[in-house]
Amino acid sequence: MEELYQYITERIDGIVKEENKDHIFKCNVCGHVFCYTTQDLRKNIKNAKSALASSKASLAASIIGTRYDMYEQNKMAHDMANKVVDFDRCPKCNSKNIVEVTEEELKQQSSSNGSLSPADEIKKYKQLLDEGIISQKEFDKKKKELLNL
């Protein structure tokens, strides 16, 4: 538990000193874009400190307290530890292969990627089919076209 707290404080020591700023990341595995703020990091530190304190209290209760006290402190430690977020991982696929991007880079990527992927196009046409806007025949034709069949 103490290693978790130490890791978090070392990892974000310089970032927390900044003003409230958005940190935007993109996963190189699944393409998911996510962000967090300095306020999120501060909250993460608070959760890690609470988890560490509860863990130490659980240890003390196991030595000099009752089993119930130990159980409750241990439960609180686990609850707080579960609230600690690993900002070094993609929240969607849990990959560590992420890069920080600026807002300008993100805007540039989205403008250069104006066209959707074939899978996204098929999803769009499937939704039109489900809504009754296009027929099954039109959907099948467009699907074959997008998949180069």
Question: Could you characterize the architecture of this molecule?
Answer:
The protein is mainly alpha-helical. The chain folds into 2 domains: 2-114, no CATH class; 115-149. It has helices at residues 2-16, 38-64, 67-82, 103-112, 118-130, 136-146; strands at 22-27, 33-37, 98-101. Strands 2-1-3 form a 3-stranded antiparallel beta sheet. Strand 1 (22-27) and strand 2 form a beta hairpin. Helix 1 (2-16) packs antiparallel against helix 2 (38-64) and helix 5 (118-130) packs antiparallel against helix 6 (136-146). It starts with a helix and ends with a helix. 11% of the residues are buried. The mean pLDDT is 77.
Brief account:
This protein is mainly alpha-helical and 149 residues long. It has helices at 2-16, 38-64, 67-82, 103-112, 118-130, 136-146, and strands spanning 22-27, 33-37, 98-101. Helices cover 62% and strands 10% of the residues.
Fill in the keyword field for this structure.
149 residues; mainly alpha; single chain; 62% helix; 3 strands; 2 domains
Domain unit count: 2
Sheet with the most strands, sense and barrel status: 3 strands, antiparallel
> Radius of gyration from the CA trace?
24 Å
Distance between the termini: 55 Å
Amount of beta strand:
5-15%
Secondary structure class reads mainly alpha
Fraction of helical residues:
55-70%
Q: Outline, from the CA principal axes?
A: elongated
Strand order of the largest sheet: 2-1-3
Number of helices: 6
Q: Give the low-pLDDT segments.
A: none
> How many E-type strands?
3
List the secondary-structure elements in sequence, H or E. Answer: HEEHHEHHH
User: Mean pLDDT, as a whole number?
Assistant: 77
